[in-house]
Amino acid sequence: MMKNILRIVVFITALLSAHAHSTDTAADIDKAMVDKLLAASDQAILQKDVDALGRLMSPNVKITLTVNMEGQRDTTNMSKAEYLDAAREQMRTATDYKYERKSLGIEIVSQGKKGISKDRTTESMRLNGQSFRGVTLTTASIELVNGVPMVTSITGDSKIEMR
Fold first, then answer.
1. pLDDT, the chain, mean
2. DSSP annotation string for 3-59
């Protein structure tokens, strides 16, 4: 039970994706596209809109999350559906939710085909009467999928404290 709660705590913080509402068919991605994606992601998270989060990720997004808590480390690979189910559960049960993201930088790689965003996200909430605070270092890859910037992979490493 605790292991599942801990996974849920980190799932939202790791999701740094958003739909850019673009019909641009350009072959390259740029920092402005990535910035727009991340700003929209912040809004989706703060609005607790899981369906919007689902539209922000590519169908084949690769998600790897590591949780460090009380000296234990657990790594989970998730499908998009598993991630969204966990996000729904967290948003349904969490109270006193606070979220803040700080950009650590954006890099355009693969000859302009991929944006890499590194962020530090801080999250706090109450779940089942217990207070949690998590800090997650996230690396997200953003690529054009059918001309639309989408998150294609997420790697998150979280340190969770119970309070």
1. 86
2. HHHHHHHHHHHH------------S---HHHHHHHHHHHHHHHHTT-HHHHHHHEEE
Whole-angstrom distance, CA of residue 6 vs CA of residue 161:
10
* Sign of the torsion formed by the C-alpha atoms of 121, 122, 127 and 132: positive
Domains and CATH numbers, the chain: 2-162 (3.10.450.50)
Alpha-carbon 57 to chain mean position: 10
The Cα 49–Cα 44 span in angstroms is: 5
Is 2 within 8 Å of 56 (Cβ atoms)? no
- What residues have CB less than 8 Å from 153, skipping those under 6 apart? 61, 62, 63, 64, 140, 141
More confident residue, 124 or 7: 124
Residue 8 pLDDT: 54
Q: Evaluate whether 109 touches 116 at the Cβ level (below 8 Å).
A: yes
Q: Which two tokens stand for residue 51?
A: 């369906």
String of DSSP letters for 133-145: EEEEEEEEEEEEE
Residues 6+ apart with CB under 8 A from 44: 18, 52, 53, 56
- How far apart CA 31 and CA 108 sit, in angstroms, is 7
